Each structure stands twice: as C-alpha cells, then as structure tokens.
Amino acid sequence: MNKTEMDFAFDKKHIWHPYTSMTHALPTYGVTSAHGCQLTLADGRQLIDGTSSWWACVHGYSHPQILAAMSVQMQQLSHVMFGGITHQSAIELCKRLVNMTCEPLTKVFLADSGSIAVEVALKMALQYWQGRQQPQKQRILTVKQGYHGDTFAA
Questions:
Q1: Hey, which bits of 10-125 come out as E strands?
Q2: What is the pTM for the complete model shown?
Q3: Which domains does the chain have, with CATH numbers?
C-alpha cells in the first residue's frame, strides 16, 4: 500500500466527514488536484465540481490571479485573528466594499463563510432590538426548511 492509499485508509477510519453518519459513513473520493472546475481523483478520474466546493469556489481552482494574490498575501501575513487587531489587506477590502454601497451602509463585518454571515446577521438583528429596549422582538422569519449552512441558527 502506497502513502496515498494509507492516507485514504486513515481518512476512512478516523475522519468524520460532514453530512454523513459516524458509524455508517458515505464513501469519500480522494482528490489529488484541481483546476478550473475540474477535480482529479487519486485514481485519475476527473469530475466537475458542480457544488463549487459548497459554493465557496466561484472562480474555480488554481485561478492564476487568485494564486498570485494569495502568494503575495501568504508571504506578508498568512492569517491574523481579527478581534482587536487589523491589517492593511482587510482595510483595503473594506474600503472597496464601503465604496460599492450607499449610505447608510458604511460598516463592514467580515465573516469566513455564508453560514457564519447569516448567523452574525441574526445575532446583530436580535442585539439591535435589545439595544432599542425591545427584547421581545426575537422572532425570525425564514423560508420553511431553508438551508443557510451549518451554524446553529442559520
């Protein structure tokens, strides 16, 4: 058994993937590379990523401009917790976002996924009514059986 096969065997035994039972897991397919909208599996087959990596890979994989920007960013600052500190890349992004919107949309809250953004929006809405001294306003209207991600309230 080669290293890749051993790794996939480890995955099957030890890694609990989303949306599957821990005891009766669905099969997983090892991806070794991706380009554009195509995934290449360990056995050489190619698939079209029709879910765009759960809707987060809208420009495809290995896009040259995105890779170049990531490389520059990773060499300067790969990641920093945003609570209480900031950095130039985030400021530049937020400037662009504020410039795209109209008054009174002048504040930006950054989230790392759509479901987190929905969860934060729900919390902000509830907090708004708390601040307005109307804590009874806590009902949220949603699409019946709507799906907005894996967070608690979304």
A1: 31-35, 38-41, 46-48
A2: 0.68
A3: 1-76 (3.90.1150.10)
